[in-house]
Automatic annotation (TrEMBL):
NCBIfam families named in the record: mobB (TIGR00176)
One matching Pfam family: MobB
Highest taxon above the source species: Bacteria
Gene: mobB
Signal peptide bounds: none
Organism: Zoogloea ramigera
Protein name in UniProt: Molybdopterin-guanine dinucleotide biosynthesis protein MobB
Molecular function terms from GO: GTP binding
Domain Molybdopterin-guanine dinucleotide biosynthesis protein B (MobB) intervals: 3-135
Gene Ontology BP terms: Mo-molybdopterin cofactor biosynthetic process
Length: 168
């Protein structure tokens, strides 16, 4: 599986861009999956549901399955968070895994940058960044040594990823 990441400050538009890039890639007959890292507490379960009750009772894993989808919930229960390699190892085979977050993991990634947010660029301190997708005017990032992608052109971003990963 090829792996390609998206990095940027919170609120920069990583999720939105990934959401727009997925159909551009899947529309070419490629199977694409996503891993999203979050620093926030999250729960896909609902209090009172059977699966929630099983977790609350102490189950380490709960697999929910229907004729439409399945999901495996794994409770860490104090164990360390698995790294990206461990997460990739449990994913079903596909052509491309898009990764949101994992800023410090060394996989090729696009930085999402919006100058209006007032945050610095990440690429100078992150050698894994291979391009910058931005909504800045063309002359707003003088001297940018990386490919500059239009944040509002997901098809061009998808093309860049596929070329970079040798999938075209």
């Amino acid at each position: 599986m090829k792996v390609f990441g998206f990095a940027g400050w919170s609120g920069s538009g990583k999720t939105t861009l990934i959401e727009q890039v997925i159909p551009c890639i899947a529309g070419r007959g490629l199977k694409v999956s996503v891993i999203k890292h979050t620093h926030h507490a999250f729960d896909v379960d609902k209090p009172g549901k059977d699966s929630w009750r099983h977790r609350e009772a102490g189950a380490s894993e709960i697999l929910l399955i229907s004729d439409q989808r399945w999901v495996l919930m794994h409770e860490l229960r104090g164990d360390p968070e698995p790294d990206l390699a461990a997460q990739l190892a449990i994913m079903s085979p596909c052509d491309l895994v898009l990764v949101e977050g994992f800023k410090s993991v060394h996989i090729p990634k696009i930085e999402i940058h919006r100058p209006a947010h007032g945050r610095p660029l990440l690429y100078p301190d992150n050698p894994a960044v291979v391009a910058v997708a931005t909504d800045a005017a063309p002359d707003a990032l003088p001297g940018l040594p990386l490919p500059r992608l239009d944040l509002n052109d997901p098809a061009a971003v998808a093309d860049f990823i596929l070329r970079h990963q040798g999938l075209t």
